[in-house]
């Protein structure tokens, strides 16, 4: 669980630096493009990563700016409803942001390689989660923790008379991975099966999402 402490009316300098850093990176990427005699694919990818970090930073800071719902107000009991899929492991249910517990999905700006060329695997992860939900109501059971104003939970959906663990299904699809630091290996079997069948990102080459975020070890792997 993340806790931020600040005196009334005073914002810590460390938070200011964290908030400004993505904008500085974006400005540097744009300046690099403007000054380049020839724009390469790597230049466009660098600009895309900088833009994505700005967007995700704004998403993370938004709950604090709006602040009608503090971390203490996040649900502690299971809750259900229609879900808006934000990425491969993040949902919004009636204004409650949910981070799916024990997994880490490919980031929205990630590109992966597979036979036939590169593809937007991060977008594919988001689409996979949306397809699993398929417009049905889902139920999320919080584990009592939160991260960046999001309730950490295991989510399920009813399908054919049975409850599908969406966290497990995302790992089994090959677009998310067992985050052993939090899952304690609960989804190791699904990941092994996805890898063996070359499902999703396992069909080619990819970077683990925690490494893509420059957060090596975030999942304890």
UniProtKB/TrEMBL annotation:
SMART domains: SNc
Highest rank taxon of the organism: Bacteria
Any Pfam family the entry gives: SNase
SUPFAM superfamilies registered for this protein in UniProt: Staphylococcal nuclease
InterPro entries cross-referenced by the UniProt entry: SNase_OB-fold_sf (IPR035437), Staphylococal_nuclease_OB-fold (IPR016071)
Limits of the TNase-like domain: 84-204
Gene3D superfamilies, sorted: 2.40.50.90
PANTHER family: BLR1266 PROTEIN (PTHR12302:SF26), EBNA2 BINDING PROTEIN P100 (PTHR12302)
Name of the protein: TNase-like domain-containing protein
